Amino acid sequence: MTFIDVKHLKKVYTSKLGSKGTEALKDVNFSVEKGEFISVMGESGSGKTTLLNILSTLDSATEGEVYLDDQPLSSIKDKKVSRFRREQLGFIFQDFNLLDNFTLKDNILLPLVLSRKAVDEMETALQPLVERLGIAHLLNNYPYEVSGGQKQRAAVARALITQPKVILADEPTGALDSKSSQNLMEILSDVHQNGQTIVMVTHSARAASYSSRVLFIRDGQVYHELYRGDKEPDAFIDSISKSLLVSSKGRV
Amino acid sequence: MKISFFSKMAWRNIKSNRKLYIPYSISSVLSVALFQMMASLMTNDFVRQRSSTLPTLFGMGTVVIGLFSVIFIFYVNSFLMKRRKKEIGLYSVLGLEKRHVAHILVIENIMVSGLSILAGILVGVLFGRLSFLFLNYLLNLPNAVGYSTSWGMTGVTALLFIGIFTLTLLYNIAQVTFSNPIRLLKGGKEGEKEPKSSPILFVIGVLSLGAGYYISLTIDNPISAISQFFIAVLLVIIGTYLLFTTGSIVILKALKRNKAFYYRPGPFISISGMLYRMKQHAVGLANISILSVMVIIAVSTTITLYAGTEETLNNRFPEENNLSIMTDDEMNSRELKSAIQTVQGDLNELSSDEGYTMTDQYFFRYVTLWGEMEGQTLAFKDFQGVSEIPLMVLIMPVDDYNRLAEDPVTLRGDELLYYAPDPDLERESLTLFDKAFDLKQINNMPGVMNGMSQLIDPILLVTPDDSTLDTIRAQYNSELAEYPVTLSADFFWSLESSQNSMAYASFIHEELRENDYPIGLFYESRDGNREEWYSTNGGFLFIGIFLGGLFTIGAVLITYYKQISEGYEDRERIQIMQKVGLDKETTRQATHSQILWMFTLPILTAALHTAFAYPIVQKLLLLFGITSNTLFLLTTIGVVMGYSLIYWIIYRITSKLYLNIVE
Ligand SMILES: Nc1ncnc2c1ncn2[C@@H]1O[C@H](COP(=O)(O)OP(=O)(O)O)[C@@H](O)[C@H]1O
Ligand SMILES: [Mg+2]
Q1: Residue limits of the ABC3 transporter permease C-terminal domain (chain B) (predicted)?
Q2: Residue A202 CA, ligand 2 centroid: distance in Å
Q3: A125 is a domain residue
Q4: Predicted local confidence at residue B1, as pLDDT
Q5: Are B33 and B2 in contact (CB under 8 A)?
Q6: CA–CA distance, B179 with B168 (Å, rounded to integer)
Q7: Is the pLDDT of residue B205 over 70?
Q8: What are the domain boundaries of chain B?
Q9: Given this model, what pLDDT does residue A252 score?
């Protein structure tokens, strides 16, 4: 069953001076099934972040449409957009976007507070999550007091705590060492097993190998996709790497 | 070559940090201008000549504004530096030595502060003149109040601000030198830890504020009010700063601990927002509160003075014509009486020759002694060089009292009529120079004597006859031979209402200029004094409004700076929260409640301070002859409301600026 449907998505960043502008996305088409775990790969500047921002309603498309459960995202009224973000989406930002004036705990609870949940409900949601992420002992620290990996895990906790239907992650392992990366990917994998849908941007073939499908994006278009099927992880990494290689050769 | 490289670098930094430097420069320029105008007033002719207390008050005012400038410039500077740390850290990482960075900072500082001081003095001079022109036009006083720029004070202004800017520069250089580049790179974030609340400072704040309030509440005479006033003001200022900086943190932390309250969108956003920069925040709020009190007091007292001029005149001059009479040591009360009657007869004759009719004529004789109540005894001694303020004792014979009072009294030979200004002094009987008298209490002094009882509340004794008065005076003089007291008298009369009192006054002046009466005469007319009083009090009003204007500008300045700087700080936070699902409406609600707090807190504090300052300020007003309480009360309430309105408008405008930046 199609959950997210992306149709003829185009995004042009126009500068104020009225010059032609940058075409970040040309014509992107793909769809995501409910419960799928999708990785998006591509070179730097190929439009991955732009795509995620449009999926998450943080940005709007120049042309084309994204449908979620057959409902066009652009039809969600301004007022409901925030609520939609809060309740349906979990976003893991490339640069964490933690607030320095909140402790990790308050950072993680932010979406629940904004949804006006009761305090005990928040606490129940918080405990198992931070234990699984290994940051339970850091809850009263501020973001500038912990390491990059710990910040990233707090950002992940904030994205997961509302148990959103869709999780959007922008290079979540970008700032992590290989061990932390593996740990994080296992958690996302768990979330995937739980039935939540994930769209993740990554540069790492190893990270991408945890997903069920990989989309390759170049010049603002999806030009290739790979299904994991029942491949062994190592084999899947192999074919992803090959595809990447082909893609960069194709460029030359 | 090197110098020019650093200068270019510095100039480029200033330009590229325009957004930070524009509010910074505006704030610096206006601070300089405010101080320059305030200091210039100290040497203003009007201020110097009209009253001996004014230069003192303005001296204090200038000191307060000076302290203020130091605090404010540091406040503004800390914000600027916080935003620039990252950039400065980058220089170090890119290989610029610390002394080079310091070099750049020095040049930047010289450029910005030099320009600010020059521009500030220019603004001060121009604005001072313009506002005096405008106020003179607006108030249309009989005598315009002149403005002169004091170049001496301008020099002081320049020196003070060079000092302040040098201090901030040293502080900045120290910060750059003593922290490592990585810290700097992390920018202001490092310092944004939740502030610690310090119970000791909190207690000191409470004590200091309490002491200031206590002084104001317990002051009982206007003379000591002047010196105590400054101490009270300083204590209240210190208390305000400490309570704002520590108290706010204590309260916010308590709110934060209340989970059911804290974990809701509004409080969650605003409490965390306020808490993490409360230290700066609190200083700004305390500044605004104190400036607001100064505006309210400056304006309400001077309006009261001006509006109360007629009352002052009536207290000073019970009738249109007033003749003060002095005698020498030899003269007793019977001789004085006949001398007054001779003068009175002559005056009546002279007046009617010129076609004037004297009405409402009455006089009273009295003597003023200084004593001390010891149980049932009124003891007299020499109070020279003694710090305690002695009791003022007015004594007059019963015939004269009956001419002044509404209900005439008769007294037995061993009886005195007695008025006590406060309940502690009430007695059944009283011994003076070993002679016991029974006392007959009255509850009020005769209204005519209001003018004599403004500064110090005297006790009044009325003797059954003239000779008792003479005996007491003689005994006093023989015991304290060094300072013999003499009899005095006041003689009042009016004219028929149709007659020209000004012409009459100069006629009487002329007639009394040379005379051969055995008593000294000093003549004053109420109408002759009216113009003088209106121009003096009008001048006070003028100065009051001018100061009120200056302080309001100060408050506006801080509010503006606060909103702009906090806008930039909150902007990023709000944007992140919106990404996570904070909607516009909640953003508005949270920022509005934050803004509302920041609006009401200083105004409420100012109102509270004003309420507690009320008694001491009222005593100060007595020095200027204002005895009516209602006038001052109503004026103060009016001014508080008016000022709140102005401040509210300012707040609306600046919070728009804030919301524009944030959204
Ligand atoms: N806000 C923006 N304004 C203008 N151009 C942008 C903006 N954001 C991204 N771009 C441009 O769009 C293209 C795609 O950027 P992005 O989506 O961030 O790529 P990726 O995340 O794949 O590295 C790049 O050429 C980038 O320069
Ligand atoms: Mg990107």
Answers
A1: 62-181
A2: 9
A3: no
A4: 46
A5: no
A6: 17
A7: yes
A8: 1-190, 195-311+559-663, 328-518
A9: 42
What is the domain-level CATH number for residue A241? 3.40.50.300
Cα A118 to Cα B611: distance, rounded to the nearest angstrom? 43
**Residue A6 lies inside a defined structural domain of this protein:** yes
Please state, in angstroms and rounded to a whole number, the distance separating the CA atoms of residues B151 and B189. 44
Q: What is the ipTM of this complex?
A: 0.85
Full domain range(s) for residue A21? 2-97+165-248
Tokens encoding B186: 């992390």
Mean pLDDT check: name the lowest of A3-12, B67-76, B336-345, B499-508: B499-508
Residue A47 CA, closest ligand 1 atom number = 17
Which ligand number lies closest to the CA of residue A93?
2
CA-based nearest distance B190→chain A, Å: 7
Average pLDDT over residues B304-330: 84
Distance between Cα A56 and ligand 1 center (Å): 16
Q: Please give the distance, rounded to the nearest whole angstrom, from the Cα atom of residue A48 to the centre of ligand 2.
A: 6
CB contacts of B580 in chain A (<8 Å) are: 85-86, 91, 97, 110-111, 114, 158
**What is the token pair recorded at B6?**
């650093």
Looking from the CA of residue A220, the nearest atom of ligand 1 is: 14
List the beta bridge partners of residue B371. Answer: B380, B391
Look at residue A133 and tell me if it is in a domain.
Answer: no
Distance CA B634, CA B626 (A): 14
Determine which of A80, A104, A110, A140 to mutate to test the interface with B (most B C-beta atoms within 10 Å).
A110
| pLDDT on residue B233 | 87
Q: DSSP of A66-122, one letter per residue?
A: EEETTEEGGGS-HHHHHHHHHHHEEEE-TT----TTS-HHHHHHHHHHHTT--HHHH
Residue A229: pLDDT band with limits 50, 70, 90: confident
- What per-residue string of b and e applies to A134-148 under the rule 16 or more CB within 10 Å gives b? ebeebbeebbeebee
Coarse DSSP helix, strand, coil percentages of chain A, rounded to the nearest 5 percent = 40, 25, 35
Question: Closest to A99 (Cβ–Cβ): which among B193, B264, B573?
Answer: B573
- Domain presence at residue A189: yes
Q: How many CB atoms neighbour CB B136 within 10 A?
A: 17
Interface test with B, best of A79, A113, A145, A146 (most B CBs within 10 A): A113
- Chain B residues with CB under 8 Å of A144 CB are 186, 189-190, 192
Judge contact between B313 and B627, C-beta under 8 A: no
Q: Inform me whether the pLDDT recorded for B514 exceeds 80.
A: no
Q: What is the DSSP letter of A195?
A: T
Separation of CA A12 and ligand 1 centre (Å) = 10
Number of compact structural domains in chain A:
1
Count of CB atoms within 10 A of residue B529's CB? 17
Q: pTM for this one?
A: 0.75
